[in-house]
Amino acid sequence: MAGTRVAGLVIGIVFGVVLSWSGMTSPNVIREGLLFQSSYLFLFFGGAVTTAFVGLWLLRRRAPRALLTGEPVQWETIKPERRHIAGSLIFGIGWGVSGACPGPIATQLGQGIAWGIPTTVGLVLGIVLFDRLQARAQAAPKRAPAASVIPSPVAADASA
Questions:
Q1: Cβ of 20: how many Cβ atoms within 10 Å?
Q2: For residues 80 and 58, what is the distance between their CA atoms, to the nearest angstrom?
Q3: In Å, how far are 17, 40, 58 from 36, measured between CA atoms?
């Protein structure tokens, strides 16, 4: 267990260094990309998607085991659902408004960048709001769909 935590810490530090080194902690870099003023953001993400695609293709061919636990690596491919689209839209709007997503926010805090604080507060408030809405939805009694009454054409003819 301690080994996986240390590995997670090291991977997180490397990820933060890459985000900082690449400029992804700068709202200006994000803004320029989202406004199509610079291709840097799209090239960066294109490289990440290509690397992930090739990596997953190789993993599927080898049936690998996890490096730290030895357990078989498994995943399930599912079709996009409404919740995925809604989550993507919410994430994109938040990213566009704040100029950061959770990875760069943590890196900004680690670098001592002041604007990471209000962004973190917004992130935490969003998580708390989501959690409360989720709990409310699960606690709400399930209602049966209202039965729609459609007059039968046969009954209408019989009463005439």
A1: 17
A2: 23
A3: 25, 10, 33
* Three-point CA angle 10, 41, 58, nearest 5°: 55
- Rounded Cα–Cα distance for residues 107 and 13 (Å): 9
CA distance 52 to 123: 26
What's the predicted TM-score (pTM) here? 0.56
Phi, psi at residue 73, to the nearest 5°? -85, 120
Q: What is the pLDDT along the chain (160 residues), one digit of tens a residue?
A: 677 788 888 988 888 888 888 888 887 887 888 888 888 888 888 998 999 999 888 888 887 887 778 888 888 888 999 888 988 888 888 877 777 777 788 888 888 888 888 888 888 888 898 889 888 888 877 766 555 555 555 544 554 4
Give dist(CA 45, CA 89) in Å, integer: 18
